[in-house]
Prior knowledge:
- The complex is a heterodimer.
- Chain A is mainly alpha-helical.
- The longest helix of chain A is centred in the first third of the chain and has 31 residues, at 22-52.
- Chain A has helices at residues 3-17, 22-52, 63-75, 84-113, 124-153, 166-196, 206-215, 220-244, 252-261, 275-285, 314-322, 328-332, 334-337, 344-365, 375-379, 382-386, 393-397, 404-418, 424-436; one strand at residues 455-457.
- In chain A, helix 3 packs antiparallel against helix 9 and helix 9 runs antiparallel to helix 11.
- The relative contact order of chain A is 0.10.
- The termini of chain A are far apart.
- Among the domains of chain A are: 83-250; 275-287 and 303-441, Fumarate Reductase Iron-sulfur Protein, Chain B, domain 2 (Orthogonal Bundle), CATH 1.10.1060.
- Chain B is of the alpha/beta class.
- Chain B folds into two domains: 35-153, Rossmann fold, CATH 3.40.50; 163-286, 3-Layer(aba) Sandwich (Rossmann fold), CATH 3.40.50.
- In chain B, helix 13 (255-267) links the parallel strand 8 and strand 9.
- Residues 1-11 of chain B have low confidence and may be disordered.
- At the A-B interface, helix 10, helix 13, helix 17, helix 18 and helix 19 of A face strand 1, helix 4, helix 5, helix 6 and helix 7 of B.
- The structure holds iron/sulfur cluster (2 copies).
- One iron/sulfur cluster (SF4) binds at residues 323-329, 344-345, 348, 397-400, 402 of chain A.
Amino acid sequence: MIFIPFSTVVITLTFTRLNVNMAVKQVSFIVIILIASGIFTFTISRLVGFFKLTKPAYRITDISRRIKILLSVAFGQTKILRRPVVGIMHALVYWGFMVITVGTVEMIIDGVLDTERVLSDTGFFYTLITASGDILAVMIIGSCLVFLFRRHFIKVKRFNGIEMTKGSTIDATIALLMILLLMVSLIGTNVGYLAQNPNGYAGMFPMSTLLVAFVAPKDLDSLYLFTEVNWWAHVMLVFIFANALPYSKHFHVFMSMPNVFLTRLEPLTKLSNMTSVTNEVKAMMNPETAFAPQTEGIPGPSRFGVKDAEDVTWKNYLDSLTCTECGRCTSVCPANITGKKLSPRKIFVDLRKRMSEKGPGLIKEGIGFSDSKSLLGDYISAEELWACTTCNACAMECPVNIDHPSLIIDMRRYLVLEESAAPADLNNMFANIENNGAPWPFPQSARLDWAQSIEMKS
Amino acid sequence: MAFSPICKTGLGTKHRNEIMNEKLSNTRKVEVPTMAQMVAKGEQPEVLFWVGCAGAFDDRYKAVTQAFVKILTHIGIKYAVLGHEESCTGDPAKRAGNEFLFQMQAMTNIEVLNGYNIKKIVTACPHCFNTLKNEYPELGGNYEVIHHSTFLQQLINDGRIKFSGKGDFKGKKITYHDSCYLGRGNNIYEAPRQVLEFLDAELVEMKRCKSRGLCCGAGGAQMFKEAEPGNKEVNIERIEEALETNSNVIASACPFCMTMLSDGVKAKEKEDVVKVKDLAELIAEDQGL
Lengths: 458, 289
Ligand code: SF4
Ligand code: SF4
């Protein structure tokens, strides 16, 4: 971490002291960009490989409704705002990122083409972007400081839990510090720009303007160095941040928008009907096919339900990559609140870990690969799964529209359909339904007993 | 039920008969028509009342079923039940992971419903409601499915149920416990509340309500098994919150919630202070049925 700003200073000093001509700076920048994009491409292709292992979920239709959901849940931050105080701070960071990204694109173009503020001719748009970016950057600094304080000095219950290892806290802290430095260097760049152009500049910088007198070095050489260091620190941090994200819970910065857009549009309590089962049930209920030998040629599913990483749908895996580990789901889960082992957040943290563990082997050796471990069993216990009431409080609360109950039920399906491993009480319930069409042991003939003697005042 | 006070009066036989005749003239037996009977008469009901397993077998919920048919009869809605031809929707089996059993149940029920050419279904169970409405269509069962809370609200809005004040809820506090399968599941938060507001009672909300409502603990087939080890039962956590509102009535609209909440009240020994009632019971009470 310390290394990043330090190396930036070294790079900048080298440029200024040696008075290297601009082409060298430009070339270095392009080389850095290529390295950064190379690493990023590697990361993404690895993830694409994992996605190829997953199962289909649903077709993406109803684009207009999806756009509406994206606008409200992502851009409008409606779900995160269900907790108004931290919600508004997060929303500021989110909106800030949206605006500042435009500035980042400009910086990258500047770096590649050796221009200065290439978008500055865009008039009102530029004023708007720079002014809001400048203000939001300061607000993001405020939010990050509050978030760091909350994480380290206030014991927020939902930041704890067995799935929240030391690593998760370090992950969160590093990401927050990076965002903090990103913003500090952005403000620094703005201040330097203002100080270098006292007689007129493009855009508008309400916050940085106030800081120029206090922060900007007075002599020209130092001022130049100051600006360059901040500029380089900022772009370098952008590259490092972008490449670190996919390995962190902060991957949601990239993933939340696609995940929200690809939300399952069904009512929350609707569960999928397994088509593999439908085919078999239909064959069984049709007198012509009931006793016929199994149809050849149509391969059944390799497995009913979910046992391991390769059994999940692409949406389950996308959910796991998107999870921010915020713990809102777990904090409203009735099972978790009452001391049961189930934590909906853990289900997705586990899936993500398990895919990273088993995915490479599956890609290399094919679907037969086994490391004699599995998601269900080694990561998630049956006890956790059976504690779920399918109340959907988790899914309702999740700010990035993750669907926990569907995956929980898919794992129950594996336990029941493949292993007949339901708790004894539930096996009784199944037997009752099979024998007398009700989950309790009452005969079908008693179904109308309630109607025998109803008297009412007329 | 209507005769119970007479036994305690200690009056002579003659007297008693007189009172009995008077009572008899005021009450009538409710006939519950089945689909089979209706079709035999060449008729089709306006709506099919899906009773559900709890509605048919659970002692406490039978009273809700009865209250609901009284309302239907009182208003003169042409309805029918499947009776012995109804079978579990398969909801608990599906939530417990037994997709085979669920689909067997679903297909059997769909065959019956389609056989009777059913178009519209009302049910007092949010779990049946969710399954029939959301999970049956893909399997070939397409119906307009309404939960009884929405159904009652529509009857009120249409002026078919008129406020009588007989139940006398004025000045009483009622809190409504959201069923997960109605609220979060199917976005039905307002209908039950409007039904309660109609009673002219004071509607008080629990801290966790509507989309934030806390589950009663029974969904997802929990109703049929022991809870996993923990430090509290979910229904106790919920009932503590309900009791904090100091309500006279905890209203529910789901058979599983009804069981869990009633057990919670019992465990807290508050049966004298607060009653757990279904929306249909409250309306029937108000209508003096
Ligand atoms: S649906 Fe299951 S996991 Fe989610 S909050 Fe309810 S009990 Fe917890
Ligand atoms: S699943 Fe959603 S609510 Fe739960 S921790 Fe992840 S992002 Fe937060």
